[in-house]
Inverse folding.
């Protein structure tokens, strides 16, 4: 689902819930080699030398465009998250997970990566989006398309990747496979009639969380509840009942109540509704 306002006015809902650049033939061949190594590698095994060398090389090239700070790159074969950034401001360090298509990217793309990592630059984001589109053949899995979208998990107050990983391990035995990102930034703060705090795209396996939740007054358990809710959509299919789609079945709602801070989150939502709507 796209990020849109909920149907019910004045009630926040957790759900209804530049030119392109492509890899050269040599770069494509190297990318294919890297992904083959990644797929053969067991999770507990040491990182193969080919991957380590590619990560180190990309780190050096990105660092050349950074005014300050250190960057740590991890290359992945994830079909859903192309770019994931975690800012560690106290250490002036960036932890970046990049799809292997970026391993041999040219200087235009590495400069865009640096600007996006350090500044969340909108122009850089568009350049990277075009690059991902142009190299989508390296992303698509069998029978499923991957979203050509830049993923940004690090907010000003909360890191969605960290929250997602914790919930996935605690409640789902790490069975959920989805990307997660903060939604698009909005303009001036204003009072809204409704807000869609989270959404889950079945086709893209993509969870979006509204930027309104990335504020200091919003408690972490509340953000975690919204993330948990959206992750449940991968467990429960959308049914058609009496000609209408049923997003939240009785089974869905029963599972949602298993969230440890469920009652506290619902209570906090009621008490802070107006503040959530003003963003």
């Amino acid at each position: 689902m796209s990020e849109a306002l909920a149907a019910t006015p004045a009630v926040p809902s957790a759900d209804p819930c530049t030119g392109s650049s492509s890899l050269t033939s040599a770069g494509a061949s190297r990318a294919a080699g890297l992904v083959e190594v990644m797929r053969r590698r067991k999770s507990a095994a040491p990182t193969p030398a080919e991957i380590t060398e590619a990560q180190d090389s990309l780190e050096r090239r990105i660092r050349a465009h950074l005014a300050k700070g250190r960057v740590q790159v991890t290359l992945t074969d994830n079909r859903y998250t192309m770019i994931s950034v975690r800012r560690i401001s106290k250490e002036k360090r960036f932890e970046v997970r990049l799809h292997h298509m970026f391993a041999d990217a040219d200087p235009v793309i590495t400069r865009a990566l640096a600007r996006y990592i350090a500044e969340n630059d909108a122009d850089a984001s568009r350049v990277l989006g075009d690059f991902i589109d142009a190299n989508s053949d390296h992303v698509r899995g069998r029978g499923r398309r991957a979203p050509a979208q830049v993923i940004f998990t690090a907010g000003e107050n909360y890191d969605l990747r960290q929250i997602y990983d914790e919930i996935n391990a605690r409640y789902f035995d790490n069975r959920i496979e989805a990307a997660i990102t903060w939604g698009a930034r909005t303009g001036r703060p204003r009072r809204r009639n409704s807000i869609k705090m989270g959404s889950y795209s079945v086709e893209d396996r993509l969870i979006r969380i509204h930027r309104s939740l990335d504020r200091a007054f919003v408690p972490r358990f509340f953000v975690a509840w919204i993330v948990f809710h959206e992750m449940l959509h991968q467990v429960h299919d959308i049914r058609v009942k009496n000609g209408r789609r049923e997003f939240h079945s009785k089974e869905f709602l029963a599972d949602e109540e298993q969230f440890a801070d469920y009652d506290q989150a619902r209570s906090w939502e009621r008490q802070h509704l107006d503040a959530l709507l003003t963003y």
Q: What stands out?
A: The radius of gyration is 20 Å. Confidence is low (pLDDT under 50) at residues 1-16, 142-148. The longest strand covers residues 70-76. The chain has two domains: 25-134, 160-277.
